[in-house]
Amino acid sequence: TDPCHDEGGAPRGCVPGLVNAALGREVLASSICGQPPKQACDSSDARRAHSAALLTFTGGTTSPVCWRSDWLMQAPLNVTLTVSLGKTFELVFVSLRFCSTPPTSVALLKSQDHGRSWVPLGFFSSCCDLDYGRLPAPANGPAGPGPEALCFPEPQTQPDGGGLLAFSVQDSSPPGLDLDSSPVLQDWVTATDIQVVLTRPAMLGDTRDSEAMVPYSYSATELQVGGRCKCNGHASRCLLDTQGHLICDCQHGTEGPDCGRCKPFYCDRPWQRATAREAHACLACSCNGHARRCRFNMELYRLSGRRSGGVCLNCRHNTAGRHCHYCREGFYRDPGRAPSDRHACRACDCHPVGAAGKTCNQTTGQCPCKDGVTGLTCNRCAPGFQQSRSPVAPCVKTP
Amino acid sequence: EVMPTLDMALFDWTDYEDLKPEV
Prior knowledge:
Strand content of chain A: 25-35%
Distance between the termini of chain B: 29 Å
Oligomer: heterodimer
Structural class of chain A: mainly beta
Distance between the termini of chain A: 82 Å
């Protein structure tokens, strides 16, 4: 039942479910009626307040149910609705329900950097050329190789007097483009904030709210941003952290708000986004349990045939090497212990007089002995030799 | 034949004081 691992525990690509990312999020409206209070609209009176919170209200029944802009008596007639999603999401659709005759010109924008910069996702207008300098969207999506902001027909007035703005990322992408294999499409659907710019109201009044008929006023409800919490294929859900920020519940050795990097010890190969076919999990470095840190080396990774590029750092327990797989100078491998054993490397313990050095054979533990000296640590005279009084030549031939 | 281990007490360090290991 773990979406990120198969029955055998092997990693597999996983994604959070489709949600309304705008639900319960604060909406900033550049215009709200009732500030200051007017005849039918008073932001200080709940019965006559048409706040922007009504656009993303989480539930229950309220009256009124619609946000309403202030009366717009003269140009500019732009009113902007901005919602921060609190985290990167991968968009699927955006919709906005109008409570009165829908505007005849709307621009939809997104930000990927929490509102610092904006790019258009699409336009909706009866005069694409005049309003946005664009041709109407082709019936079968953009002609180019990648997705682009197209100009769609303006929202149509429905029998109840309202209207629906509906944008689907699919409509602005060339057919056949696949999210797994297209970095361009991945970038296109990525957003942290959504902005709806209502640029030209219909010259008609409200037919759904109980308010008086007022020209030059926008009124809407149910701003929905359908999308998936962006976790790059390495999490099946997003959670609130201790500071109340939405973050991915990262798996596959990844970390970060979007699982966008490998965890510190998981750098045996470069980070990659998971796909439906390949998990591209970050792999832990192979350090035989003797190191807590490692670094990635691209040169070694290439030389290994793109299999392994991790280099262990600060090998402990007297081990050394890229994988802490051999003993450091002055130590040798104890054949009776596993390579991961804390005591896998034993001190050479070369005799201070009998040995010619302190470094022994790393496999056998044999110290380099002076002439006539024998033993693993060079601590005895060889047969036919006897101990002398000279520390330089500790064993001499027996007379 | 197992030879005895080197006896450190038998060595004369007079001319090799700088080589004498710390005990």
